[in-house]
Amino acid sequence: MTGAGPSGGQASPNGTQRAVVYAGPGRAVVGEAPMPALETRAAPGVLPRRCDHGAIVRTLATCVCGSDLHTLHGPGAAEGMVLGHELTGVVVETGRDVERVRVGDVCSVPFNVACGRCANCRAGLTGHCLRTNPSRPGATYGMGEGFGGWAGMQAEYALVPYADFNLHVFDDADRARERLLDVAMIGDILPTGYHAARSAGVGPGSTVYVAGAGPVGLASAVACRMLGAAAVIVGDLNAERLAHARAAGFAAADLAAGELPEIVAETVGVPYVDAGIDCVGVSDATVAAAGAGGGTPVAAALNDVIGVVRHGGAVSVAGVYPAGAPGARPPLGVWLGGIWSKAITVSSGATPVRRYQDELAAAVLLGGVGIADAVRATAVPLEQGADAYEQSMAGAGRKFVLVP
């Protein structure tokens, strides 16, 4: 077992590192956080546990995700907890039970914290692991105790439990470093888009409508293209995002310019598509208002998708919809009558990232899939993490990648 600290040597004397942390509702700041260890102590949003099966990873790139913005408004965030769940890095320490992963490996970390051993993990449902979250099935880094109590990854170093299972090790480390912005998308956003497209039955000749021209929507559009879709229409209200979608080669639907069925018909000849993907979910502003008693989240984008999917078609929900408190059933205004009457198949839930990483890594490194360009991946220093959050919350059409 080999240890390493912020400069690749020993850990810093005070045992802290620089990280993006939660600083109250709607606020992320760059501050100090505990250095990760194989035996974690209780900390904001972190549960104590020992991880002899884990590894410590030095960060090469860590991303800001739309679901991180939800965390800033969610009730489960604890002040001082490290945010983030998308990491590409280098292994610097391994636990005594780790056999496959080696110090020096360049790797991608799935956002799902999964044991690889339970019934759900064995079935490929790593987003619903039965062992990594004492509260409920499924765990994610950087989202607080309700999501398993694992420290976030927008930091210089991070702990990855069950390292032999969770870490995708790149066969060509030099190539992975050269295409760092592309491989940074393999821990979450590209698998999320790919899973959404596959779940919606996208294949050669398919017509698809994607709600949302943000990074997840564009990743979904890229995945649809990879799977052979004949036409992909990306809808949004943000002019900057729509302009980029057009520049990336997709049809763009300006939802402020007309009725969606008519816009769809202009592209595919009929007012419906084979498959729809909702990459919007519930907006952060609506979540914040609902959490404060000021409103009810509404599934407007999802209803748009349902409205333009053909009878017998399929809808995949990649956007986040909060479950609420245990036992709560918050009304979302989903058009269930449209789903039922049109016999639409619906799939949803957290993406089982580990299921897809091998093939997507090959698609990026060998097949040349330019996912970084498609989502406008923008590298910024970790110290500018707070600004990256502010720009993301303001609707910037970019995927920010924090580089320590």
TrEMBL record:
> Domain of life, per the record?
Bacteria
Pfam families given in the database record: ADH_N
Keywords carried by this UniProt record = Metal-binding, NAD, Oxidoreductase, Zinc
Q: Which cofactor does it need?
A: Zn(2+)
Q: Which InterPro entries would you find in this protein's record?
A: ADH-like_N, ADH_Zn_CS, GroES-like_sf, NAD(P)-bd_dom_sf
Question: Domain Alcohol dehydrogenase-like N-terminal, which positions?
Answer: 54-163
Keyword Protein biosynthesis part of the UniProt annotation = no
Q: Hey, which family's this protein in?
A: Belongs to the zinc-containing alcohol dehydrogenase family.
What protein name is recorded for this chain?
Alcohol dehydrogenase catalytic domain-containing protein
Q: Which organism is it from?
A: Actinomadura nitritigenes
